[in-house]
Design a protein that fits this description.
By secondary structure, this protein is α+β, with helices and mostly antiparallel strands. Helix content is 24%, strand content 29%. The protein has six helices and twelve strands. The strands form three sheets. A five-stranded mixed beta sheet has the order 2-1-5-3-4, with helices on one face. A hairpin with a 3-residue loop joins strand 3 and strand 4. The termini are far apart.
Length: 258
């Protein structure tokens, strides 16, 4: 059996030490919305990568997160902080990080305006397979006002790619006017109203569906699911039919869980 020299012993220890450093993990406590989650992550992971992990846990988009640990750890207006590794940021086993930020569903609700509670409850309990959206009272309140004068030109059969610019002339619940833009280069969905503009990561949308508007089949009611259940569905009225296939292909089908 060969015997290692002193120098060989030291070299072996260096290799073992390097391997240990590469897999060094830190157990963190993540506090969000009064709930505590535990994550075990490599010390070499960046704060930006940590935010992605937190988004998967909480559905709070990484771009919206503000993290605090002995002061500000990261924030929407401090992108340079995201390049630090967890170790460089001073995090160690047991460190507790407070996450501040809205979920994707909450951001969408702010963008479109809160719907009446009674209407929300009716939508949640209505059997989608047996009743058309156009026949439901909550949607008729918007549709009965007629096609908006500034509606984006709609036509069939719905095979066009999504436009590079915004789709204007849309309406949301409570008759809030809106524009919708999909920015593939940035990976975000932009919802603009007269009061505010909200950006959502495309990955925070769980699915899309649409239904032709009776009497105006070149326009649809577009449904985007911003959370894990149908209670987080957000409705866009007068969406041009030619873009429905493209937006469904982008987000996939809506789930049926409640």
């Amino acid at each position: 059996r060969p015997t290692l020299t002193v120098s060989q012993d030291l070299m072996a220890e260096d290799v073992i030490g390097d391997a240990t450093a590469q897999v060094e993990a830190i157990e963190l406590k993540i506090v969000y919305a009064k709930k505590t989650h535990t994550l075990s992550l490599p010390a070499s992971m960046t704060v930006g990568q940590l935010k992605i992990q937190i988004e998967q846990l909480t559905n709070c988009p990484a771009v919206q997160q503000k993290l605090t640990f002995k002061g500000l750890l990261s924030g929407p207006d401090k992108p340079h902080l995201d390049a630090k590794t967890l170790k460089e940021a001073g995090l160690e086993n047991g460190s507790k990080i407070l996450v501040i930020g809205a979920t994707a569903a909450q951001i969408l609700q702010v963008a479109v305006g809160a719907a009446a509670p009674a209407a929300d409850e009716a939508a949640a309990s209505a059997p989608a397979a047996t009743q058309r959206l156009c026949d439901m009272t909550e949607h008729r309140k918007v549709l009965d006002k007629g096609l908006p004068a500034d509606a984006h030109v709609g036509y069939q059969p719905g095979q066009e790619p999504l436009p590079e610019g915004f789709i204007n002339g849309l309406y949301l619940k409570n008759n809030v006017k809106a524009r919708l833009t999909v920015r593939m280069d940035e990976g975000v969905l932009v919802i603009g109203t007269n009061e505010r503009t909200q950006k959502l990561p495309l990955g925070s949308i769980h699915g899309a569906a649409s239904e032709p508007i009776v009497g105006y089949e070149h326009y649809h009611i577009l449904v985007l699911q911003a959370g894990p259940t149908e209670k987080s569905n957000v409705y866009f009225y007068w969406f041009p039919a030619q873009y429905t296939r493209a937006i469904k292909a982008l987000f996939g089908p809506i789930t049926t869980s409640k």
